[in-house]
Amino acid sequence: MSALFNFQSLLTVVLLLICTCAYLRSIAPSILDKNKEGLLGIFWKSARIGERKSPYVAVCCIAMAFSILFLS
Fold first, then answer.
1. CB under 8 Å, gap of 24 or more: what pairs does 47-54 form?
2. Phi and psi torsions of 4, nearest 5°
3. pTM as predicted
4. CA dihedral of 5, 48, 22, 35, whole degrees rounded to 10
């Protein structure tokens, strides 16, 4: 089953995208900062969400890990 049709998998993919983009921007900001618009702007926006909402993203990651490990 594709991650687009399974809600839990879709949330996992979105959380991984946000965390990965925020980490890449902390290591090398020039990679994501040059593409703020267009299709590649999704990665820049994901990095901004990961930076600004990091406590909420961390809680969501912990909740997702708990649900994957113990509820699936």
1. 47/18, 47/21, 47/22, 49/18, 49/22, 50/18, 50/19, 50/21, 50/22, 50/23, 50/25, 51/22, 51/25, 51/26, 54/22
2. -75, -25
3. 0.80
4. 90
Task: Show contacts of 63-72: CB within 8 Å, 24+ apart.
Answer: 64/8, 64/11, 64/12, 64/15, 67/8, 68/8, 68/12, 72/8
Q: What is the helix (H) or strand (E) element at residue 59, kind and residue range?
A: helix 54-66
The amino acid sitting at 3 is: A
The runs of H, that is alpha helices, within 5-53 are 7-27, 29-33, 41-52
The length of the chain, given as a count of residues: 72
Task: Write the pLDDT tens digit of every residue in 17-62.
Answer: 999 999 998 998 888 888 888 888 899 999 999 989 988 888 888 8
